[in-house]
Amino acid sequence: MSISNPAPVKANPSPGEVAQSSTGFVEHDQVITLYAVTGVFLTLAVIAVACRAAVLVLKRSRGGWDDWTTIFCLAPTAALAAVTSVQANSIYKGPKPDQAPFAWLQRILIETWVIQILTITSLYVFKLSICIRYLRIANDLYDWFWRLTMAMIALLSAHYISSFVTWGVQCVPARRYWDPSVPGSCIKQSSWILSVNGVNLATDVMVLVLPIYPVAKLRLPPKQRLAILAIFTVGGLSTIAGCLRFYHLYRFDRMIGSLGANTLDIEIWCFIEITLGMFCACMPAFRTLYTFCRYGRQKPWTPEKTTSQGKTSESSARNRFNFLSKNKLAPKILRSIQASGFDVEPDIERVYQQNLDGIETTRGGRQASIGTSLTATETGSTSNKKRPYESD
Fold first, then answer.
1. From the CB of residue 198, how many other CB atoms can be counted at a distance below 10 Å?
2. Beta bridge pairs of residue 306
3. pLDDT at 113
4. Helix (H, G, I), strand (E, B) or coil at 10
5. What is the model's pLDDT at position 288?
6. For 146, which DSSP code?
7. What is the pLDDT of residue 297?
8. Residue ranges under compositional bias (Polar residues) (predicted)?
9. Is 121 helix (H, G, I), strand (E, B) or coil?
10. Residues 6 or more apart from 48 whose CB is under 8 A from it?
11. From its phi and psi, is residue 60 left (phi > 0), alpha (psi between -120 and 50) or beta?
12. Across-strand partners of 374?
């Protein structure tokens, strides 16, 4: 989100008035801050994605959906950094002496339109990547976690599609957004923008807290607990950045403080939120890359993740989509979402499965062994119970 109603500019400003507007709308230090933030955080995002891609190369893996969505997220994020920097420079300098003020205003509004499209796309893609990765730890025990993750993906997709379409047709024709002289109509932008960003902030929180319960149940060594804590910390910082972005967006909408300062603050915190989210999505790959650099190829890179019943967790994960294929309720592309990611860094799901293999629950005369299948013993009789989605 960026500026949509810049301060009015006189039709024929003098050079002194142009200079005054250049330093009065936004300060030079604010523009430099935006340049520094976008440069530093874009570099961090590129390094994180490069590490994730390096893991795929070292393991000779084609990657999964979560890997490719994260890599794709670099494109709109880099474009967002470029357009934001160009717009900040235009706002700071104001219209050129030989440039009509209306043409300057049109350029800013066009850049605003592009920035919003890139923003909602980047936010959606990195959260989608994180949710797809959550499916890796959605093993047989926690069916509710798998269902909640798929529901979260559906919610994110519906929110993105509705936001994208609404922003594209908020003015009919679209040209009217940056050229009020064109006949047409526009929706009320202020309330719509606040509601869209409010829902986006809510999804940030939901994506962050979704895996807390299943991860908290893991029995992990201290180092791995610290690693998971670091991932959640970075995710929390991204959510905090989203809160600050919404705060400055509210100030912008209510015309509180400097219009130009609020505009740059919105863009700064938006970019921090996106890049920290990408960094968080790539953090699990850092350990694999570190292990390779330290031990070389002496350690196995694609171990079989075997359950207590002798089945690999990859096959178990594929079974979750069997009930979809039998009933022909989902296309092949949907059934491949979870299974495609199992050839990449398997630390979380491997540890998760190891924990499940050692769990035995006893209640009264009923003893349940939790693994890829559920075996119940009551009054000396034993029977195997299959889940509705497991194949025969």
1. 13
2. 312
3. 87
4. coil
5. 80
6. H
7. 55
8. 369-383
9. helix
10. 278, 279, 281, 282, 283
11. left
12. 370, 385
CA-nearest of 83, 84, 85, 105 to 94 is 105
Q: Which CATH architecture does the domain made up of 15-294 adopt?
A: Up-down Bundle (1.20)
Non-local (6+) Cβ contacts of 255 within 8 A are none
pLDDT at 81: 94
Question: How many angstroms separate the CA atoms of 233 and 225, rounded?
Answer: 12
Query: Which pLDDT score, from 0 to 100, does residue 27 have?
Result: 84
Q: Which of 318, 330, 333, 311 is nearest to 68 (CA)?
A: 333
> Could you give the count of Cα atoms lying within 13 Å of 126 in the half-sphere of its Cβ?
32
Residue 101 in tokens: 């003020």
**DSSP secondary structure letter of residue 12:** S
Instruction: Characterize the bridge pairing of strands 185-186 and 171-172.
Output: antiparallel
Give the pLDDT of residue 91.
86
pLDDT recorded at residue 298 = 53
- Look at the block and give the residue holding tokens 């979809």: 324
Distance CA 304, CA 313 (A): 8
Domains of the chain by residue range: 15-294
Amino acid code (one letter) for 10: K
Q: 61-86, pLDDT tens digit by residue?
A: 787 888 889 899 999 999 999 999 99
**Cβ pair 163, 196 in contact under 8 A:** yes
Residue 1 near residue 270, CB atoms below 8 Å: yes
Q: Are 267 and 115 in contact (CB under 8 A)?
A: yes
Question: What pLDDT sits at residue 17?
Answer: 41
Place of tokens 């804590």: 229
Element spanning 342, H or E: none
* 61 vs 1: CA distance, rounded Å: 37
Backbone phi and psi for residue 347, each to the nearest 5 degrees, phi listed first = -55, -50
Task: Determine the Cα–Cα distance for residues 91 and 2; give it in Å rounded to an integer.
Answer: 11
Query: Per-10-residue mean pLDDT for the chain, 392 residues long?
Result: 45 39 66 93 93 86 83 93 91 80 83 90 92 74 79 94 88 83 81 86 91 79 82 90 92 82 90 92 84 66 40 43 43 45 42 46 39 37 40 38
Residue 97: asked if its preceding bond is cis (omega within 30°), the reply is: no
- Collect all residues with Cβ–Cβ distance below 8 Å to 324 and sequence separation of at least 6: 330, 334, 335, 389
With contact defined as beta carbons under 8 Å apart, do 338 and 135 qualify? yes
Q: Give the E-state strand segments of the chain in sequence order.
A: 171-172, 185-186, 360-363, 366-370, 374-378, 381-385
